[in-house]
Amino acid sequence: MTRFEIARKRMVHEQIVAQGITSPRVIETMLKVPRHLFVQEAMADQAYSDNPLPIGEKQTISQPFMVALMTELLALQPRDNVLEIGTGSGYQTAILASLCSRVWTIERIRSLAMQARKALDSLHLLNVNIKVGDGTMGWPEEAPFDAILVTAGAPAVPEALAAQLTPGGRLVIPVGTELDQAILTIRKQADGTLVRETGVTCRFVPLIGRQGWQTAA
Ligand code: SAM
User: Fold this and answer.
1) Mind listing the pLDDT tens digit for each residue in 124-171?
2) What are the residue ranges spanned by the domains of the chain?
3) From the CB of residue 49, how many other CB atoms can be counted at a distance below 10 Å?
4) Does the annotation mark 62 as catalytic?
5) How many A from CA of 191 to the centre of ligand 1?
6) Distance from residue 92's CA to the centre of ligand 1 (Å)
7) Which residue is catalytic, options 49, 62, 89, 122?
8) Tell me: domain 3-202, CATH 3.40.50.150, correct?
9) Nearest Cα to 152, choosing from 210, 203, 115, 83?
10) Atom of ligand 1 nearest to the CA of 112
11) What are the start-end ranges of the E strands in 65-119?
12) What atom in ligand 1 is closest to the CA of residue 86?
């Protein structure tokens, strides 16, 4: 085992399983995906710590526990098509891509999208489409989606995203102020109504766009 594999195994047991994640598919995927390939080389040794880390452009790679929790809440099936808003480093994208059929991911900062593409290609994750733009409007040409994940903090649930869910689809999104949010899980019922459940508190960088915050904090 390499030092990274040892650190990853420890991360999964001490930060993820110990904090209540139980989905065997999520646990198995977190054991496999090399988080150190999604951070700057100088930070590779911190990649398995229980923190978000800077990835440039004032953005962060999310805390591993938060990645596992939001992924578990999406309840992904192997045939699902998933939309992700906020590609960032591409680490969460890689976890999603390992658990479902296809991932459509949108990042507003071009340099991050390009870096993420490289990291995902290095792992031969070919079921990922990346677009640069405002993810608050979703990806209407590819909708509907079985699951939608937003990895930046929103002031409210963007209507465009809820509209792009399949019946039975799940949307997981941090909603609140620019400084703290709660994780919401929203399920679209067969008749189109939305049922929402509020989960843990968290602190994400802001979702900036037409149906998000108007400017960077
Ligand atoms: N999940 C990512 C990872 O594992 O590295 C972390 C994402 S980071 C916390 C949030 C990302 O959302 C940032 O890269 C930011 O540029 C992006 N973002 C913010 N508003 C956005 C928008 N309207 N559309 C697309 N991306 C957006």
Assistant:
1) 999 999 999 999 999 999 999 999 999 999 999 999 999 999 999 999
2) 3-202
3) 15
4) yes
5) 31
6) 10
7) 62
8) yes
9) 203
10) 14
11) 81-85, 102-107
12) 12
